[in-house]
Amino acid sequence: MQNRAYSFIQIKSLDEEKRVISGIASTPRPDRVGDIVQPMGAKFKLPLPFLWQHNHDQPIGHVTEASITPQGIAFKAEIASTDEPGKLKDLLDFAWQCLKMKLVAAVSIGFRPLKYAFIADGGIEFEEWDWFELSAVTIPAQADATITAVKSIDAGLRKAAGVAEPEIPRPDKPAATGKGRVVKLDAPARDRAEPFVIRSIKRTA
């Protein structure tokens, strides 16, 4: 199980030639869903992968330094560069420009919980955790819903903490009966199945 927690980059310095940024990767403050990731509980080995938007097939560099304090994890990350034209060069240059101009102004840690405790208000405090990667991520203005949806806390932990599943709102009026159309498929849906076009609809009695 891997979870994610977000914090805004506090860029203290930028090295244009080496493409190095420094900032804060994690703080002990509660996040938008009431969880706390304690910086002092981080376990990791440098260098750590520095990814683009949590895409594991889009590495953009490495976290080369990380210093744990009660206030947060200070880090330095180096964005790679290449002179060879192609998709990789385009990605690396694009990521660097976005970071420099603060168009991408947040980082997210990918981690696996080792020791945790439930908080009275329903959140989870992660006391010890394995730090797998750091990602540069885009947090839009509507951050509440995005963070809640993207952060993948295990459903079992939520249930054990007594956090209710979100209620699915029902429509004000029931759907009309007897006038609907039912589409029947000969085979069940498959993950990653190729899209297809329904050319006819069989009416049912």
Describe this structure in words.
By secondary structure, this protein is mainly beta. It has one domain (3-160). It is built from three helices and ten strands, in the order ββββββββαββαα. The protein has helices at residues 87-100, 143-150, 155-160, and strands spanning 3-8, 13-15, 20-24, 36-37, 42-43, 48-52, 55-69, 72-79, 106-118, 124-137. Strands 1, 2, 3, 4, 5, 6, 7, 8, 9 and 10 form a ten-stranded mixed sheet that branches. Strand 6 and strand 7 form a beta hairpin. The longest helix has 14 residues, at 87-100. It is elongated, with a radius of gyration of 22 Å.
Low-confidence stretches: 140-155, 166-171, 173-192
Could you tell me the strand content as a percent range? 35-45%
Q: How are helices and strands ordered from N to C?
A: EEEEEEEEHEEHH
Query: What's the multimeric state?
Result: single chain
Helices and strands in order, then pairings?
Layout: E1 3-8, E2 13-15, E3 20-24, E4 36-37, E5 42-43, E6 48-52, E7 55-69, E8 72-79, H1 87-100, E9 106-118, E10 124-137, H2 143-150, H3 155-160
Parallel strand pairs: 4-10, 5-10, 6-10
Antiparallel strand pairs: 1-9, 2-3, 3-8, 6-7, 7-8, 9-10
